[in-house]
Write a structure and sequence with these properties.
2 domains, 1 helix, globular, Methylamine Dehydrogenase, Chain H, WD40/YVTN_repeat-like_dom_sf, about 45% strand, mainly beta, cytoplasm
């Protein structure tokens, strides 16, 4: 704890909290999450968080940042270290943090009902926890594969979960959310699976994309391998069904975005012809009407596509620096988001593609210094940045 005014000698932090009334406290933990606490007016009453300045997604070059959103379109969901961040889209100062993973969390996904979140980590564990209470009570925990979880998808009735990643004997699994019982085998890949999605309408399908350059197709439940598509020549980074289930899109490090029939898997076409981007494509997100989709690429652009014509509607040029490479995207209600290699979250403007509506900046590495002045918080992180957070009291 760093009190205001600062202590002249080391003291017990809890004792100081009892002595000082109405004074703000900055809490710094060995993570990149910054909390501002306010002590209660009445002595010995509990204190509560006043603001949470949540970190940005942690990025790695040429690696997808997987974003998911809540069914109501209010939040964006991602992981940083051992934490899962639920971030409000309208007010970036409002966030909730889940910190119950014992190792690094890798991906998290809301159930379609909105009542639960399934989050995975590098050990291959899946934790399913409640979203309606601040305590985020753990409902179930499973170990579907023996390596890092890379993607998670729920069935539309919130009863089944499909996961994929870096397993040993298998790279994916589909199971019942309340018992862990298997409802199919994910076979057909010879290398790690990067992405998985569950068709949101009947007949149910599961699609996967892997580091063996393949897209695999499964029918069920119980899900069984049906077909393999080999349109891509490099890693398949993301596969996503459209909201109405009519189409599937896969994107790859080869710069291609391929559209398939959502029921049969037949190839419908490629966005932009031979290549959709001049660099690898790391994410794809569908619009709510299933007629348009958004792609994010290492060529430092995002593109909005008309799926019917396979032509570009808008191109968002995000900069010229290496840190402007785009590694993730999400279409959440009326918000079009992308994530840069820097970790910045960009709110894209369809009416003015040259300039984002706003850019959410901050830290995505551990904090090692902190100071406050007036209503502003200054946080120094291990990457050499000083991040300025304001206002202190929301």
């Amino acid at each position: 704890f760093i009190p205001s005014p600062p202590a002249t000698r080391p003291v017990n932090a809890h004792a100081q909290l009892r002595q000082i009334v109405k004074e703000p406290y900055l809490v710094i933990k060995p993570t990149c999450i910054l909390r501002v606490l306010c002590c209660a007016v009445v002595r010995k009453m509990p204190f509560s968080p006043k603001s949470v300045f949540s970190p940005l997604p942690r990025t790695k070059r040429a690696t997808s940042v997987v974003l998911h959103g809540d069914p109501k379109g209010r939040n964006v969901l991602y992981t940083v270290g051992r934490s899962v961040i639920i971030r409000d889209l309208e007010n970036s100062g409002e966030a909730d943090v889940y910190t119950q993973h014992s190792v690094e969390a890798t991906v998290a996904c809301y159930s379609p009902s909105g009542f639960y979140i399934a989050s995975g980590d590098v050990s291959g564990k899946i934790r399913i926890w409640d979203t309606t209470q601040k305590e985020h009570i753990l409902k179930y925990e499973y170990q579907p594969i023996a390596g890092a979880i890379k993607d998670i998808a729920w069935s539309p009735d919130s009863k089944r979960i499909a996961v994929c990643g870096e397993g040993r004997e298998k790279f994916g699994h589909v199971f019942l959310w309340d018992s862990g019982s298997s409802v199919g085998e994910i076979m057909g890949h010879s290398k790690f699976i990067n992405s998985i999605d569950y068709r949101p309408s009947r007949p149910f399908r599961v699609a996967t994309g892997g580091e063996d350059n393949k897209v695999c197709w499964f029918e069920g439940p119980p899900f069984r391998y049906k077909n393999t598509f080999t349109e891509h020549t490099r890693f398949v980074n993301c596969v996503r069904f459209s909201p109405d289930g009519a189409l599937l899109c896969s994107v790859s490090s080869d710069g291609k975005a391929v559209v398939y029939d959502g029921s049969t898997g037949d190839t419908k076409g490629c966005l932009g012809g031979d290549k959709a981007h001049n660099g690898g494509i790391y994410a794809v997100a569908w619009g709510p009407d299933s007629k348009q989709l958004l792609t994010a690429s290492g060529d430092k652009t995002c593109k909005l596509w008309d799926v019917t014509t396979c032509q570009v509607v808008s191109e968002f040029k995000m900069g010229t620096a290496v840190e402007d490479q785009q590694l993730g995207c999400l279409w959440q209600g009326t918000h079009l988001l992308s994530v840069s290699l820097s970790g910045f979250i960009n709110f894209l403007d369809v009416n003015n593609p040259a300039t984002p509506l706003r850019v959410v900046k901050g830290q995505n590495t551990n904090l090692n210094s902190l100071a406050s002045a007036s209503d502003t918080v200054y946080a120094g992180s291990l990457d050499g940045r000083i991040n300025i957070h304001s206002p202190l009291f929301c």
